[in-house]
C-alpha cells in the first residue's frame, strides 16, 4: 500500500483535521498515518479551545513513523505555532521528504484562529520552501501574499508572490469567491484553472483539509500534480454533494460518499469511488493499429470465438465484443472466453455498450456512445484503470469526452457504412484530422474502412482503424487482418 502521513490537529467534531485526513486517505485506498500537533475542542459551531503539543514531541512522532514505516507523501494542516513549524520543517529535511503538501491552516471555517499570527513568518521561511505545493484558500492566500484578492488578476498576483516563498507550486482555492468553484494552480510559469459546479451547502467544515489530504493521497499513488488536482477536486465535490447536516453549524463533508449510499443504505463497491482515468490507460493502446469489432451476422456462420481467434492470429491488437441482439448470459459467457483469448495474444478486450458485462468478465475496457452513460459517471463506475472508449463525430464531442475521462475516441463514420444503420452520413478525413489535432488521446477511425482506404485514415492522423466487415466478413480473416497491419505499417 502507498503510505501517507498527515501532520495536523485533531478535530473532536471529526469533520476536519486529522480525522478528515484519515477518512480521505482510506477513501483513496492509501495507508494513513497521523502526527498530532494539537488537540482542538470543537464542533460544527466553532472551536472552543486547543492545546498544542510540545514541538519536540511532534518531532518524535515524525521520527518514529518516518524511520520505520516511511511515507510516499505527507501533508501538513494545523501547525499551531512557530516552534512546531520549525520542528516539522527540520524533520522533513532530515527525511528528505519531497511529496509535501502544505495546507496553510490559519483560521477555521467558523472564523476561529488555529495558528498564532507570529508563526506566519516561520511558515514562509521554513516550511514553504520544502513544499511541493501549498494550498491556501483566498483568506490564507491574502495573508501569505499580503494583497487583497477580489478577482482572477489578484489571484495571479498572489500566487506569484506565494511562489516566491519557495514552494514548487501554489493552488489558490477559489471556493470562497462567488460563482463556479474555481481553483487556480500556478507552477511558476502558468496559471491553470480547475472548475467544478458550486455545491449549495452549509456543510463545508473541513473542505481545505479534505482537499489537501486527497491531493497527498493522489501524489502517493504516483500521479503528477496536474492530474491529482482534478481528482482531489472531484472527490471533494462528491463529499460536499453527499454531506449530511450533522450538528447545528457547518457540518462535515461526506468523506466516504463513494462507498456508502445513504439513500439506499447500500455499501457501494470500491469501483463506485470517484475516479479519474490513469495516464496509463491511453498508453496501453500505443502501437495497436488494428481494432476488430465482432458482428455475428457478418461472420458467414463462423462463431464469434473463431472469428476473434483468427483476427488475433492476424495481429489485431484490440478486440471489441459488439453483439446487439445477444442476451446478457451470452455476452458474459463469450466475453469471458474472448478476454482469455485476448490476454493469451497480448491484445486488449473491450466490451461495447455494456459496463456491467465489461466488469463481470474483467474486460480491459468498455466502449460507449453518445447516448450511453455519461462519461464521468461511467468513469466512476468502472474505476480509474479500465479503458474507456467514447464515440464522437465532432471535435466538440471528442474534446468533452477527453475532458471527462475517455481514454480513446472512436471517430466515425469516416466513410459510408451499411454495417451500422444509425451511423449517419460519412464525416470524412478532414474532420478526422481536426479531431486528432484537438485531443491528445488516441483516435480510431471507424465506419466503411477497407484495405483500400485504411492508409488514408492513418495519414489523416488516426492512431488506428476499427473495422467490422472488412475483417469479420473476410473469407480469410487472418489474412485480412495481416493485410490491414501491413498497409498501416506503410506497406502497399
Ligand atoms: C471503436 C468504436 N468506435 C465507435 C463505436 C460506435 O459506438 P456507438 O456510437 O455506441 O454505437 P454502437 O457500436 O453501440 O452501435 C464502436 N462500437 N467502437
Ligand atoms: C460500429 C460502428 N460505429 C460506427 C460509428 O460511426 O460510430 S460505424 C460502425 C460500423 C463499422 O463497421 P464497418 O467496418 O463494417 O463499416
Ligand atoms: Mg453504443
From TrEMBL:
Residues 290-471 form the Thiamine phosphate synthase/TenI domain. It catalyses: 2-(2-carboxy-4-methylthiazol-5-yl)ethyl phosphate + 4-amino-2-methyl-5-(diphosphooxymethyl)pyrimidine + 2 H(+) = thiamine phosphate + CO2 + diphosphate; 2-[(2R,5Z)-2-carboxy-4-methylthiazol-5(2H)-ylidene]ethyl phosphate + 4-amino-2-methyl-5-(diphosphooxymethyl)pyrimidine + 2 H(+) = thiamine phosphate + CO2 + diphosphate; 4-methyl-5-(2-phosphooxyethyl)-thiazole + 4-amino-2-methyl-5-(diphosphooxymethyl)pyrimidine + H(+) = thiamine phosphate + diphosphate. GO terms for molecular function: ATP binding; hydroxymethylpyrimidine kinase activity; magnesium ion binding; phosphomethylpyrimidine kinase activity; thiamine-phosphate diphosphorylase activity. Pfam families: Phos_pyr_kin, TMP-TENI. 2-[(2R,5Z)-2-carboxy-4-methylthiazol-5(2H)-ylidene]ethyl phosphate binds at residues 417-419, 448, 468-469. GO terms for cellular component: cytosol. InterPro entries: Aldolase_TIM, HMP/HMP-P_kinase_dom, PM/HMP-P_kinase-1, Ribokinase-like, ThiamineP_synth_sf, ThiamineP_synth_TenI, TMP_synthase. Mg(2+) binds at residues 353, 372. Binds 1 Mg(2+) ion per subunit. It is an enzyme of class 2 (transferase). It comes from the Bacteria. Pathway: Cofactor biosynthesis; thiamine diphosphate biosynthesis; thiamine phosphate from 4-amino-2-methyl-5-diphosphomethylpyrimidine and 4-methyl-5-(2-phosphoethyl)-thiazole: step 1/1. CDD domains: HMPP_kinase, TMP_TenI. Belongs to the ThiD family. Belongs to the thiamine-phosphate synthase family. HAMAP family: TMP_synthase (MF_00097). This is Thiamine-phosphate synthase. It comes from Thermincola ferriacetica.
